[in-house]
């Protein structure tokens, strides 16, 4: 289910304040994470991959060496859902521990 | 070192025959691999990631659930090198074993 206006204020706003950006023309958020090298980037991606599979909710992502651009949106509802909020938050938390 | 014309005929041509495509406006090749699900896609990506790190040559790649689009090019020489041929071939071999 798509985020309500209230949920956007309470759940999405903190992510936008933390560097996530609305994708132009889509109800989706994107953020680029930068690492020391490929090993660090891949380690982080692996954690996000396992968490995604566990939640049955997967990112659109692009990796070039030490950079990973991650987009979250929910296909089923055609926009942002609480699943995206959950996984985007996981991305930030895993990055903070990196 | 960029591929010579002779190397393009002997090394690159087989990859182009196997589904790799020249990227428009770049001396780079791209191919999309499709899997049964995310687990299969991630398993394949993990093998490519380890091989990339071992060869110190990394792809540009994009993953959405069961699809992975991989681009190979060599930054140092500004175009395709034998490293790209080697890793693109590895991608195909690992996919065949999938």
Features:
alpha+beta; globular; Gyrase A, domain 2; four-stranded antiparallel sheet; 47% helix; homodimer; 98 residues
Please outline what is shown here:
Chains A, B: Belongs to the pterin-4-alpha-carbinolamine dehydratase family. By secondary structure, chain A is an alpha+beta fold.
Q: What is the element string of chain A, with H for helices and E for strands?
A: HEEHEEH
Task: Tally the beta strands of chain A.
Answer: 4
* Separation of the first and last Cα atoms of chain A: 32 Å
Approximate helicity band of chain A? 40-55%
The portion of residues forming beta strands of chain A comes to: 15-25%
What would you give as the CATH superfamily of chain A?
Transcriptional coactivator/pterin dehydratase
Spatial order of the strands forming the largest sheet of chain A? 1-2-4-3
Runs of chain A with pLDDT <50, length 5+? Answer: none
CATH architecture of chain A: 2-Layer Sandwich
Tell me the domain tally of chain A.
1
Largest interchain contact: A-B, 15 and 15 residues
Tell me the name of the CATH class of chain A. Alpha Beta
Structural class of chain A: alpha+beta
Characterize the largest beta sheet of chain A: strand count, sense, and whether it forms a barrel: 4 strands, antiparallel
Q: What would the CATH topology of chain A be?
A: Gyrase A, domain 2
Quaternary structure classification: homodimer
């Amino acid at each position: 289910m798509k985020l309500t206006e209230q949920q956007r204020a309470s759940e999405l706003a903190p992510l936008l304040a933390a560097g996530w950006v609305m994708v132009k023309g889509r109800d989706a958020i994107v953020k680029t994470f930068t690492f020391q090298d490929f090993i660090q980037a891949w380690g982080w991606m692996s954690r996000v991959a396992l968490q995604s599979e566990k939640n049955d909710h997967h990112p659109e992502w692009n990796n070039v060496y030490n950079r990973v651009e991650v987009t979250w949106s929910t296909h089923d509802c055609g926009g942002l859902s609480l699943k995206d909020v959950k996984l985007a938050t996981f991305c930030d938390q895993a990055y903070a521990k990196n």
